[in-house]
From TrEMBL:
Residues 11-316 form the Malonyl-CoA:ACP transacylase (MAT) domain. Keywords: Acyltransferase, Transferase. It catalyses: holo-[ACP] + malonyl-CoA = malonyl-[ACP] + CoA. It comes from the Bacteria. It holds the Pfam family Acyl_transf_1. The keyword Acyltransferase applies. This is Malonyl CoA-acyl carrier protein transacylase. GO terms for biological process: fatty acid biosynthetic process. Transmembrane segments: none annotated. InterPro entries: Ac_transferase_dom_sf, Acyl_transferase_dom, Acyl_Trfase/lysoPLipase, Mal-CoA-ACP_Trans/PKS_FabD, Malonyl_CoA-ACP_transAc, Malonyl_transacylase_ACP-bd. The keyword tRNA processing does not apply. Residues 1-25, 297-316 are annotated as: Disordered.
Length: 316
């Protein structure tokens, strides 16, 4: 990455990137007091969660989402303070990460975003307990293949759908355990394979309809900004910049429909001219996807203050 005026997109990862001690690297940063602020908004001791909760505790959906959200917020505020977000043209976040993106873009105040994440996590956890499900990543399967495999499974009486279209040759499916098993068995015929994901729910599928219903009230009670920086929405990949976004409707749809990540990345690239992508939060999952989507783009990630400091000369 070089110090120029290249339009940059800032992206935030979602659930699945949580890990024991993930808050430790940020503990001495100027933004760390935000952890206490978010804790007060949601009624959870996030310092304990970020510093001491083990991986088993963090697997629970509501805890995982609050932990990942908070680290994303810390990384964003530290990046602002470090002056590395000078040419940001747009934002995106994968699933849960979309809430960090909305906060970063100015669509949501921090307290409102935190309360929504807490409500979303509880709603998804409850829905998964009421109707257990599973998810699996299809490797070497394009959108057409993923849709065909899930359609065939539904025709055979199984509940399973495409949940994420992440990058060329990488999709995620979601549904009942039997439905995931049916897709896994059939994938080889198409030259693909399925890797089961360690989740307890059929996220981003119609099996989350109860969660969407529960989240509706929380979404309706929160004000979204009339004007904000562009955010590529998960549900269709389109850029939203204000009141016309109808974010409450989009976030309910996001729970029960697929995350169209590849489309969002292409919108940031094609409509805003983003040639540089900066991932803020733990891991490099999104950076890897973006490299596969846009091999000509430049990507960087900052999952710790040290990695952020390495970018300070870039002045993105």
């Amino acid at each position: 990455m070089t110090a120029d005026a290249t339009p940059t997109a800032v992206v935030f990862p979602g659930q699945g990137t949580q890990k024991q001690g993930m808050g430790g690297p940020w503990q001495d940063c100027g933004s760390w007091p935000l952890v206490k602020e978010i804790s007060e908004h949601v009624g959870t001791d996030l310092e304990e969660l970020l510093l001491n909760a083990d991986d088993e505790a963090l697997r629970r959906t509501d805890r995982a989402q609050l932990a990942v959200f908070t680290v994303g917020v810390l990384a964003f505020h530290e990046a602002v303070a470090a002056g590395v977000l000078k040419t940001v043209a747009g934002y995106a976040g994968h699933s849960l990460g979309e809430y960090v993106a909305m906060h970063a873009a100015g669509a949501l105040e921090l307290g409102d975003a935190a309360r929504l994440v807490a409500a979303r996590g509880r709603a998804m956890r409850d829905a998964a307990e009421e109707r257990p499900g599973a998810m699996g990543a299809l490797i070497k399967a394009d959108e057409e293949t993923a849709e065909s495999l899930t359609a065939d499974a539904r025709a055979a009486g199984h509940d399973v759908w495409v949940a994420n279209l992440n990058s060329p040759g990488q999709a995620v499916v979601s549904g009942t355990a039997d439905g995931i098993g049916h897709v896994a068995d059939a994938a080889a015929v198409h030259g693909a394979r399925l890797v089961r994901l360690p989740v307890g729910g059929a996220f981003h599928s119609p099996m989350m309809s109860a969660a969407a219903t529960r989240l509706a009230g929380a979404l309706a009670s929160v004000p979204f900004a009339d004007v904000h920086a562009p955010v590529a929405a998960n549900v269709d990949g389109r850029l939203r910049t204000g009141a016309e976004a109808h974010w409450p409707e989009l976030e309910m749809r996001q729970l029960t429909g697929p995350v169209l990540w590849e489309r969002g990345v292409r919108s940031l690239h094609g409509e805003l001219g983003c040639r540089r992508f900066l991932e803020l939060g733990r891991g490099r999952t999104l950076s890897g996807m973006i490299t596969r989507i846009l091999p000509e783009s430049t990507t960087a990630s900052a999952g710790s203050p040290e990695e952020l400091r390495a970018l300070t000369s870039v002045r993105t």
